[in-house]
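Example 3.2
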Amino acid sequence: MSGEPQYIGIDESLTFSCGPHKGCFNQCCCDVNQFLYPYDILRLSRALGVSTGEFIETYTYIYIGDTTGLPVVSFKTSSQNNHACPFVTEQGCSVYEDRPASCRIFPLARALARSREDGTLSEYFAVIEDPICEGFQGGAVWTPRQWVKNQGLTAYNERNDKMIELISLKQQVMPGRLEGDDRKDFELACYDLDGFRARVADGTLAFEEGQKKAILEDDDALLHGAMDWLRERLFGTRRAS
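Structure, written as tokens:
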């Protein structure tokens, strides 16, 4: 295998399987360096029964991405355990039902492109032929469309794409590193969503009463409200409904 991504159509086929029967089991959970989206953090914090702030403090670290200039959240890993994900065990992933999108989509990668003519988004896929992975040696036949459905990625993609749109807009109108209060507000609205909710609850962040009620009671409304607030806070524009 080359190790280089090989582009694949959404209805083209690949052969792949993963599990304890493979000699490489758990190896892809080591030397982890992955970006966590807001929905990843929400799902994991809810599964663990902790706030988003506690999850970030305990399991992750934040740094500024070289390409985007934006705060990036990644898992803390242990140098004494091959830099493994904090949730991997000998039996596999201990948070499997709520694992991040980047784990779910492997061995695929997904990218979005926006049309300059009408602004519509198109998705593209590639196969990541990791040299250590034995999953390509026999197994079920999948298409990217089938894999996305089987791995429960639809809900993740719908929510995470809002973050991708924010990143794209930032690169267009605010290139360079995000610093100071802009960085703090980005981290609050994108990552510490329970902290954002608390500020809505105490009136520090003002929303009309109906949206405030939804944000306080529903995590999807919280996620959407935070993204919308951040878009207006940084760029002076709300997302078209």
